[in-house]
Each structure stands twice: as structure tokens, then as C-alpha cells.
Amino acid sequence: MNFADKLSNRSTLGDGLKPFWEIGRWSGERRAPPPERQHSTRFRRTTPGTKKGSVVRALILDDDPALGRVFARLASEVGFTPCSTTSRGQFDLEFHDTTPELVVLDLHLGDTDGIEVLRFLSSAGYVKPIILVSGADPRVLAASSRLGRELHLNIAGVVAKPARAAELREIFSAAYATIQPLSLERLVAAIAADELELEFQPIVDAHTQKTVSVESLVRWAHPTLGRVSPDRFIPIAERDLACITSLTDWVIRAAARAIIELDAAGHRLPVAINVSAHNVRDLDFPERLQNIVRSLQVDPSRLIVEVTETAAFGDPVRTTDVLVRLRLKGVELAIDDFGTGYSSLSALKHLPFSVLKIDRSFVSDLTASHDSFAIAKSVVDLAKNMGLATVAEGVENAATALILTEFGVDHLQGYLISYPLSLSRLLLWLRDSAAAS
Predict the structure, then answer these.
(1) Which architecture, in CATH terms, is 194-436?
(2) pLDDT tens-digit profile of 223-240?
(3) Higher pLDDT, 337 or 158
(4) Sign of the C-alpha dihedral, residues 340, 343, 345, 348?
(5) Closest listed residue to residue 62, CA positions, set 31, 26, 91, 40
(6) Which of the four CATH numbers 3.40.50.2300, 1.10.260.40, 3.20.20.370, 3.40.50.970 does domain 35-179 have?
(7) Which CA distances in Å does 278 have to 70, 238, 244, 283?
(8) How far, CA to CA in Å, does 179 sit from each of 54, 102, 130, 271?
(9) Rounded to whole angstroms, what are the CA distances from 234 to 146, 208, 272, 277?
(10) Residues 39, 177: Cα–Cα separation, whole Å
(11) Residue 7 in this model has a pLDDT that exceeds 70
């Protein structure tokens, strides 16, 4: 049975399995995006209480609404307030109404084309970043980029379709950084001043619908820029060993404090933290992590350390030393963004991971791409054969969740279940979910 057949044949789930998206406890406010992440067809205007400088608008023109939504979500993740349009008329209206800080432009637009839009932007004297997107021959994309520069436009990036989410996120982050620059000195001061905060995204069992853990995600509440995405400040921190060490220690401490509050509310859940390549090559890291959590009377086994496969292979000997000692202290290890690097199978063979997280780039188009369907199924089978638990990241719709459940994925994470939440909102979400089960 192919993936299209599976979508139409729900009976393959079996009589005993009721998918969580059909239960109703995931409806309403708990599943809705927080206000700052909703993507309307129009720009949201600055409202009373909005921090000066916190609204950085991105205007997207792509005649494919689905791709426009993907671009909008990724732009939002790095800090932009996105508006996705599908026609030249919509685009012109939004552009004249509120000049955006970034334009994302598809060169193929049905009755018109991106070159006409570039001429329009040039005549309007637009000097802010433009990202060109196209499925055309690479030479056409390169020629369009050169033309844009000759028209005195700021071509910040070119993306060939189909594009990887990581590639788009990196380009959006770089564009955002040119608009709202940050400094290492300011980040160091922010860590010391406790301007950071954690949000938590629930991870649920695909079969029982129970919350099994949460992933912590660090945010920076900048006093003038508003909420700053980690995609912007983590690369700055990683350029300085002392800064990334301080940042990681802050995250460990904050995660341990969250565990204490979760326990007090009756939710004994492990909390996952993300660590840098510098951390997994730091021979003092296992002891430092253990000392921080034990100083707060939290056992290290309550933490899950997530490591990207790219980070794991910068220095295999030191990384193996650090990861083995973390496991000996009871810390669970998850290999994150699996399949996006070049050493995945070697990492699984040589390093002591217990959890495999399937990267969202293989999950996001699972229902539309036969290749993603085949890759995700193979990854799940591989993990099962190696005795690893699986988490699918980026689950955003019921059809995707259904397929992953049939594959045998253990746990699901994504916007279908919940957006990242503050600790107080997470506690409410967990309370309401327990009451509805």
C-alpha cells in the first residue's frame, strides 16, 4: 500500500487505536498558535504594548499558497512578522500599505513573473533585503540575481526549489541579522541579567496520547528588539567559548528549576535541552551538568541532552568521552535533526544515543513526497532494529501524524500537539490534557 492509499484507508490503524487528533482534547486554545505566531493574510499592525522595534515585517509573494505558508512559518521562527501573498495585486497592496523589511519573491508567478516585480521594487527605491526563490534552471536563478543587483537591489539570497528548511532558515536568519544586529557583548550581559527564558514543547506518545517529555527552547527577551529567536543569538554565542558555556549552564539551571515545578504540579516528566558542539567536546561538561542539577536536588536522569549529528562528529574522540560519561550519570541522549548531516549511521553505531529524532525536513512533506515517505519509514525501521526510541519533529497535521503512527514512531512533537509554551502555560496545558484524557 502506498502513502496515498494509507491516507484514505484509516482502518489500517486497527480497532484499538484512537488517534489523539480525533479525541478533541487537542482542540481550542491549546492547539492555536500564540498571537505572535499567527500568519494572517494581512500584516498585523503594531498594537498598544508592542515593543518599539519588535515588529520586523517580511512580505512573501508565491503563487503556491502552501509554499507561502512554509516560508511564512520559517520567517516567523527567526523573528519576522510575515505576510504571505499569492498575487501581484495583493503584493502591491501590502507593499504600499506597510513597507516590509524583507521581500521573499518567487520568480514564477503565473500571469506575471518575478523580473517585473524586481523592476517595480527598483523603481520604488527599495533597498532592503530580497530573497529570490525559483524552481527554474540554476542559470536562470543566477541571472535573475545579477539583474537584481544591476537594478541596485539588495539580493540577500537565492534559493532553488525544492529547498531544505534548514537552508531557508539560515538565509532568513542572516537577513534578519542585517536588519537587527546583535553583539556578543550584549548577549553576555543578557545572560548575566537573566533576560533569557525557556519555552517548552510537549512530546506525546503516538499510541497512548500521553505526554512523555518536553523539549526546552531558549528565548531572549530583548528589552528593545522584543523576543529574539535562538537562530539569531546561538551562532553569536558559539563564537565565544565562555559565552556558550555560560548560556548552556543557564539553560541547564532553568531546566532543572522547571523540573521542580513540574514535579510539584504532579507531572514527572523529563526535560530535553539542546547543547552546542562546544559542549560535547568539553571534558568538564558532564561534571558541570551533574553539579548544577544536583545543587537544585534534581537527578541528572531527569534530563535529555539533544545533540545534532553535525556537532557529534567535530571531534569524535572527545565527543565519545563526553557522551559516554553523560550516559553513565543517567542522562538520556538524543541525536537531533537526524539525516541532515553526513555521518548519521556512523553516529548511531559509535555513540551511545538512546533516542533518535527524525528531522522535520523529512516530516513536513510526508503526505506529498514519496521520497520523504520512504526515508521516514526507513529511519523508523532502522531505529527499531537498533533499539532506539523515535521522535518525529515538526508534526503539523493529522494526516502526517497518522502515517507516522502507522510507521511505528514512538513519540510525536510539533504544532499539531502544541506550540512551545511558557512554563505557566505548559502547566495549564498539562492540567487540561490530563482532565480531558
Answers:
(1) Alpha-Beta Barrel (3.20)
(2) 766 777 787 788 889 889
(3) 158
(4) negative
(5) 91
(6) 3.40.50.2300
(7) 31, 7, 8, 10
(8) 11, 9, 12, 34
(9) 32, 35, 17, 11
(10) 21
(11) no
